[in-house]
Amino acid sequence: MASSSAPKASGEEGITNTTVAFLGPFHSYSHQATKIVFPDAKWQLQPTVTIKEVFDRVQSGACPYGVVPFENSTHGTVTFTLDNLADRAGEYADIVVCDEAYLDVHHFLLGKRLPPSYSSSSSPPPQPPQQNVQNQNQNQNAVPPTDLSHIRRIYSHPQAFGQTAAFLRRYLPAGVETIEVSSTSRGAELAAADGDGTGGANASAAIASEWAGRACKLDVLARCIEDRDDNTTRFFVLRRRGGREGRREGGGEGEEGGDVEDVGEGDGDEEGEGDDVYGGQQYKSLVSFTVPHRRAGALADVLDCFRGRALNLTSINSLPSLDAPFQYLFFVEFEGSRFDDPEGRVGGVFEDLERVAQRWRWLGSWRNRRGRR
Ligand SMILES: O=C(O)C(=O)C[C@]1(C(=O)O)C=C[C@@H](O)C=C1
After folding, report:
1. Confidence band (pLDDT; 50, 70, 90) for 7?
2. Where is the sequence biased in composition, kind Low complexity (predicted)?
């Protein structure tokens, strides 16, 4: 299920508040990811209704940690998380990313099986011609369903709909309503509550994990329906800057005296370790910035700062800055840590950003849990 080794959350010594916020309800993928990072029984995992609420609880100190989905290998960035990291209303000044986790995501179509008395036909529903199937399901494990003709609506999180688009296009009868809800496990709850228990001809289904299906006592209508069998979601662990319980593991104080070093245990068993001389590849960092909108080459100038310091970029995103229409806030993730920076490359790029960007912000440094692929 999980594709990363179980990292131990750092900064645990002396911690008294042992709560961790995640997007619930229980049995969501966020819950699974949270259990990877915080496996010990001492952690009390607190489900929230929205991703924003995870940010709120970490910022307010109600929870020392929060876990949020950041990006999916098939469907891309989780915009709800990026929106909050953008922090355009200035609500999350103290939030930083301190770790990451990868989860292999296998979606199930869950509902009530159609009893034989209702079944109009035992053959599979008609399929569109092959050439009309774009983004064709590459997942060899996907088992075509037998009869889904009773399904009228499907609940799920927008990301899960995006990750199963080819399957839905191919196997779902026309006219089925897709209803976006706050999480996949919430979708499973709603499908279970909708059903009359008989699997009648006006049934609801959900796209969620097998775990959520079991918890909600739903039948498996189709398994592993993700469009790609390498479907993976990367999660960020959030914490508040300056937590007294923080611990540094090498590296200087930086200008944020009191910041915590949250980059894992350094036990040397992570993938990708040991093959980068200066160690920057073992870590990642995230910054956001804006550039002077009207100056030609302004974005290229900022990116050039990273090239100049030989810092490899691992992701880039943008959102409307809301400063003015069609101006953007950029996010760049790169290999390197502000806390383990023996050659001063990361510190150096921060000085460069100070000169070149309009405004910028460091959003965290953490241990790379996957290494280069
Ligand atoms: O809905 C869930 O179960 C979540 O945890 C959210 C989420 C996401 O936002 O990407 C997490 C993993 C999957 O990619 C699908 C949904």
Report:
1. very low
2. 130-144
